[in-house]
Design brief:
globular, five-stranded antiparallel β-sheet, 3 domains, 22 strands
């Protein structure tokens, strides 16, 4: 098999700090156990005041053996604990304890573009003749600290988090995280929480974590699909008896909200199992991944597909508590607030966008917030952030995360009337099963909490709303997306 090297850019959207991220990872080269590539992105930050946080790029590596004539799966390539370098002094590399990847971020306070630099990562094992892929996604640091869940709403929001006795918000403290929050009546007045007591191992959000800056996009999911075996791809098709990986060019894998994922190169299922190559084709001309093919819009997916994606990327789902922390930060709650920290809001129709379905898609007016755009349309991730937008107009959370109460609905571990107390901070291991399912203990729930609202439906767009607290049966037609987090 011919040796190949690929680079996958996992971000297509707009930074909450300024106009565009433009993450670019250069084609990697391999020498023994050293993988070398270039990286640059726009509008990075590291701030000492306010949220006191930074953005970063999560980088991980996949490898595919060429030891036989059969097409082998792409597997996660663990990194060495040391031996990683990045050119210049502007950036630093932060390792993680499980060696599944690294975070690359600013080394000091500053804001602006990151010019191209060279990165060298040392793998735990030499590559040899293997194919290699380098993947990256932008993330945001959410620091350790106390925060409130619930916004103190009146009985109109009886399903929201409270202090258990009144409708007042509940302060999540270090002591609470250490000992556990306990039974549902202690954090929800109507007892709409886990049927099992939540212990100290359950992520309540007090401890620091990284959160994806944007929701999973169509382009990201296509990159995931294109790293799988034929049988793994087959198990992800909604109706494999109708459309399979060996179907003709242009066969639709999924089409919703003005995006289309199609088969670009059919797979082979007769003499050998060769996986398909997928691409985005929103304009339906069978020319894939063009400028107007919506690679950067939020992707609506099934629950199990999302869990498999997060496991593959060595991330994990967030919890409901972490969702509110990532939105609200350390400031006091505002009754009826959105992710951008206020109740300001107006509707913006789909006709207000310019350059639709392209990386240059923008709104020709300045809306307040980013929810309930309606018309069954998905928008470019981070579309409301510009070089001059404030938090209200960009729809950014306290920490600079975008589309948390807009875009696609956010999925989170939590909800009502089922036991999710076994969920922990354990991250995905980078590998999934041969039927394209996650293999992480504590992730297998038939129900979950839907948070944040979407551009398709108005309901649930408030930061603390839990009106869809138990929706394991909801399908992608409801604009069910999500993003991953990582403990460290």
């Amino acid at each position: 098999m011919k040796k190949i090297a690929i680079y996958l850019i996992f971000s297509f959207a707009i930074s909450s700090i300024s106009f565009a991220n433009n993450l670019v990872i250069g084609t990697p080269t391999v020498s023994g156990s050293t993988v070398t590539f270039t990286i640059k992105w726009d509008n990075s930050w590291n701030v000492a005041n306010g949220p006191a946080n930074w953005d970063a790029v999560w980088i991980f590596v996949k490898r595919q053996t060429c030891a036989s004539n059969t097409l082998n799966p792409w597997l996660h390539a663990d990194l060495n604990a040391t031996g990683h370098t990045v050119g210049g002094t502007q950036l630093q590399i932060d390792t993680v304890s499980d060696n599944k990847g690294v975070f690359i971020r600013r080394s000091a306070v500053g804001m602006g573009n990151i010019n191209q630099v060279t990165v060298e990562l040392t793998l735990a094992n030499a590559i040899g003749s293997d194919n290699i892929g380098v993947y990256g996604t932008e993330m945001v640091n959410v620091p350790q600290g106390e925060f409130y869940v619930g916004d103190g709403s009146s009985p109109d929001n009886q399903n929201g988090f409270t202090d258990g006795n009144t409708f007042n918000p509940l302060l999540i403290t270090q002591a609470m995280q250490t000992a556990g929050i306990g039974q549902h009546s202690l954090y929800q007045r109507q007892s709409l929480g886990s049927s099992g007591d939540l212990p100290g191992t359950f992520p309540l959000g007090y401890n620091r974590f990284y959160c994806m800056k944007y929701e999973v996009t169509t382009g990201q999911f296509v990159s995931f699909l294109n790293s799988l075996t034929y049988n793994q791809q087959l198990n992800l098709h909604q109706d494999p008896n109708n459309i399979s990986p060996s179907s003709p060019i242009g066969s639709v894998f999924q089409e919703r909200f003005q995006y289309r994922i199609e088969i670009a190169i059919p797979g082979q299922s007769l003499t050998a199992l060769t996986p398909a190559v997928y691409g985005c084709d929103s304009n339906n001309n069978d020319v894939f991944d063009e400028n107007d093919d919506s690679t950067g819009v939020g992707y609506s997916m099934q629950w199990e597909h999302w869990l498999a994606y997060l496991d593959w990327a060595a991330l994990r789902p967030m919890t409901e508590f972490e969702f509110e922390k990532a939105c609200r930060g350390t400031i006091l709650p505002v009754v009826g607030e959105h992710a951008w920290g206020s109740t300001w809001f107006n509707n913006v129709g789909s006709g207000s966008r310019v350059n639709p379905r392209t990386p240059q898609e923008v709104m020709n007016i300045a809306p307040l917030g980013a929810a309930n755009l309606g018309n069954q349309v998905s928008y470019r991730a981070g579309i409301f952030a510009t070089s001059v937008s404030d938090r209200d107009h960009s729809g950014a959370t306290y920490y600079g995360i975008l589309d948390m109460t807009g875009g696609m609905y956010e999925r989170a571990i939590g909800g009502w009337h089922h036991d999710y107390s076994a969920f922990t901070t354990a991250n995905g291991d980078g590998n999934i099963s041969n039927i394209a399912r996650h293999n992480q203990a504590g992730w297998s729930y038939s129900q979950y909490s839907v948070r944040g609202g979407s551009t398709v439906l108005y309901e649930g767009r408030l930061l603390s709303s839990r009106v869809w607290g138990a929706n394991g049966t909801q399908d992608p037609g409801y604009a069910m997306g999500g993003r991953g987090v990582r403990s460290y």
